[in-house]
Amino acid sequence: MTKPAAAAGSPPLAVADAAAAIATTAAAAIVIAVLTTSIRLQARGRHARRSARSAGIETRAIAPDLDDTLTAMNAIETQRLTKDYGAGRGIFDLDLTVREGEILGFLGPNGAGKTTTIKLLMGTIRPTRGSAAIFGLDAQAQAVDVKRIVGYVPGELPQFGGWKGSEIVAWVAGLRGGLDGAEVTRVAERLDLDLGRRYREYSHGNKQKLALLLAFVHRPRLLILDEPTTGLDPLHQRVFYELLREARGHGATVFLSSHVMSEVEHVCDRVGIVREGRLVTAGPLSELAAIRSLRVEIVFDGSVPVERLRAVPGFEDVAATDHTVTGMLRGSFAPLLAALSGEPVASLTSREPSLEEVFLSFYDDPAPPGGAGRSDLTV
After folding, report:
1. Can you state the angle between helices 165-174 and 27-36, rounded to 10 degrees?
2. Domains along the chain?
3. Cα 308 to Cα 344: distance, rounded to the nearest angstrom
């Protein structure tokens, strides 16, 4: 990888010179995409690189604005999307629809298939079968066009060695055009990111900030973020949430992979939970009653009819201590009230469980045999 050089006699590369529309921080993926696209796009890329290296020259749009050619449609659509690594690892038969303008939280522990799904959406790996589309663009056949409208934070950050932050931005900017340097400055200042330092000197948190800057700074139509707050302190997590809400205000759609419950509750409209490569449930946060159900606590004045309560349909995770019974009630209260009829009940309380309790409930049960599960859910 050749380090970009400033023109002879020109001042060092600075933030204003580094500005351009960055569709992804996965630099290798962009290079491959650019090298495999048409001669016309390659010529534009060379012109953009020369502009980014010219001190004092603000790089403007080189390629036409793809957003102008896209009509309103679903932001993400997959059909039976599968990447099978063998031994039950990967993502399987994923049918997913994300509507334009919403924020989807894609939840699951490490190894559940979140990053694999995102790589398939970005066209950086090939599916075993099935398809994915971004605003109607085929994620494989039109991967270059996809990257032009997507802001991407990968789960594994690329390495840039001794390059300065400003040089990284300039190099990526050289592959594309169309951003005001003032926006780069604004986002960098909000994230407290020093673009004059070398990448190898950055802490993990600062490397993550650079990835966020590259994703947000060109105001993409779609943000695909793979665990974006990893390494950020609470203060800069708050800045991230602000950037996310601002992007939403500009009409962006967000696909956010996470295993942090509070993060999802902060910003997401909808949630999909993935388990062992299968989407097991999905729905709006405001309408998860069937998933969330209620956490119930019953206090008795006398003996506790534990076995009768464990037989109540929908009353799960029943536990008894002294004169108190707790459990998760899914569905109607009627069967539980019928079971309590005639019993010395001192008090009965219920509350909605946290999203974390909901999430964990999908991992407490044994996995479906043969990896079976519901992956045909519209989100």
Report:
1. 20
2. 294-352 (3.30.70)
3. 14
